[in-house]
Structure formats: C-alpha cells, structure tokens
Amino acid sequence: MGRVLCIANQKGGVGKTTTAVNVAACCARAGLRTLLVDLDPQCNATGAVGGQPTDRHPLVKRSPLGEAIRPTEVDQLDLLPGSRSFHDVDHLASAGGSESRLVSDHLSASLSLYDFVLVDCPPSLGTLTETALATADEVLMPLECEYFAMEGLTQMIELIKRVMARRNARLRFGGILLTKHDPSLELTNEVEAEVRDFFGEVVFDTVVPRDVALAEAPSHGQSILDYDPRSRGARAYIEVCLEVLDRE
C-alpha cells in the first residue's frame, strides 16, 4: 500500500479541503495513482473535483469500496465521494471503539491499489477524524495565518499523540502547512514567526498565499492546476506536493 496522508484540523476554514484536493491533483499529475477520500459530511472535496455525493456512505454500507470509487477528470486521480446522509454521518461520528476499528480496517483494505491516498477529514476532533488518523501513515495540519490560528491546536495535537501511542499505529506527524498567507499583513508575519519558532522543521517551508483563484476553483469542479495553472496558489501547491514527496 502507498502512503496515506490525512488532512486534519478541528478548526474550519483553514484550507483543509483546498489542501487535500490540490495536493491530490499534484500527486496525480506527477504520475502517482492517487485516491481522494472525502470523510467530511459537507462533501466539499467531492464537489471540488466535479463529483457528486452518494446517498449512503460506502463506509457505512460496508460494500467493497471499489464499487463506490469514481474516476475524476484528472488522469490518475480517483475519488471516494462523501455522503450528506444524516443517518450515515451520525453512524460514523458516534461509532464506538470496535466499530471505529471495523471502519478503519474496511477503508485500509481498499487502499492497496494506490500510490498516494489523501483523506479529507471533518473540522472536528470526533470519532470520524480519529478513525481517519488511525488509518493514515501521516497527518498534515493546515494552519491559517490568523489571530485564532493556535486556538485548539493543543487538543488536535493531543488527539494525534493518542492515535500514535496505540499498538500497531503507524501514524506520524507529517507537518504543519501555513495557509492564507499574506506577507503584507503584520499579523501574518507574527503568526508565521511564532509557529516556526515553536514547531521548527515540522512546519513546511512553502506557504499557501491568499489567492482568489483558490477560492474560485471548487465552484468549477476543478483543482487549482486546471482552473488557473499560472496562479500563485497553483505554484504554491506544486511546491507543497514536492515537499510532501521529499518527506517520505
């Protein structure tokens, strides 16, 4: 099985789905067979690559995930779409320990055909995020360059540590990615300096800039590479992808 990278942050609006979609697209463009897994009930990652949410989530149905995986318009990129079903969301979010392990095992069993798997998590510390972390090799945490960037970070790191401490766990901390970066703002520079000083080499060298093209691309069902390949956002995510590959 290839690398499984979980994109997680309990705070919404930090560029989590944007990162999952665009790193997945970059990996696919690099010739890696890539799967984008949408575990967020908002299904934004599904729509961002031109897909449609399913009536029932494949992880709840327990049917072979290969039957639910869909190709996208990007060569080498497949999608396991999310579901907005309230019943399925409640089921996945409230799963107990044994049920959570079954979901994780079911997901893991279908990933062997891919070189790279990107899992887009919901903005929460719930069971669904914990299940995704238990399935992954690495966790990448997008962090917005804003005043409340550090809020809740401790709880997220504690969850990651808890999963890493489990027997047979393979999860490692893949890094922190600074997003919505605007060097003209003093606040952005203060947040970046504080994060880099505290976390050191864990923080990606690349930062993702504020770029309207990144906000527009999902409404067209495209990654930033297809929507505006010459944009600052596209260049940034290509560099992020290269860093991810270098950190293997």
Automatic annotation (TrEMBL):
InterPro entries: AAA_dom, DNA_Partitioning_ATPase, P-loop_NTPase. Keywords: Hydrolase. Its EC number is 3.6.-.-. The keyword Plastid does not apply. It comes from the Bacteria. CDD domains: ParAB_family. It is an enzyme of class 3 (hydrolase). GO terms for molecular function: hydrolase activity. Residues 3-172 form the AAA domain. This is Soj-like protein. It comes from Botrimarina hoheduenensis.
